Amino acid sequence: MELKKSFDFRKVIATICFLVATFCFAQGLKTADAVSYEISAELSIPSINLSSDVTTLTLKDHALKTPETIVGRFSRYENKTLLIGHSTTVFNALENVSVGDVINYDNEVYIVENIEVLKRDDVNMDILLKNSEEKTIVLMTCAGELYENGGASHRLIITATIE
Fold first, then answer.
1. What is the CATH number of domain 37-162?
2. What is the pLDDT of residues 147-157, one digit of tens each?
3. Model confidence band, residue 7 (pLDDT cutoffs 50, 70, 90)
4. Which residues face 49 on adjacent strands?
5. At 96, phi and psi to the nearest 5?
């Protein structure tokens, strides 16, 4: 009796996907990193060698979903834009920004005016997103104690106005 071995590509592909997902999990990466975003702008902060694509976010159930590896933006008003990113990926060096640093965003130059760290529960999004007279960007990321569920105790908030 002769045994025939059949080569099933679906099983091979499934095994490869499983191994990649296992590797990503072991490295602390999320498989959502493979999600593609529509790029709407660029952000760079030369002082910390940051350069990232930016995607436009929309509110879903009164919340914004932060992209895994790039910056997300949200605006209620023409002169105020919130830029969010994860402190473990794209904004991992944001804590090294200083007042007076240059930020290039959407083909315009901004100067850092204010840096603060607030407890997560003390962040008032209505105030943060309130319109301003001059073009302003607000960068926000997690700070303080990082929790296992991906959250954090504080938020680092950087405000910059157009040059």
1. 2.40.260.10
2. 887 789 999 99
3. very low
4. none
5. -90, 0
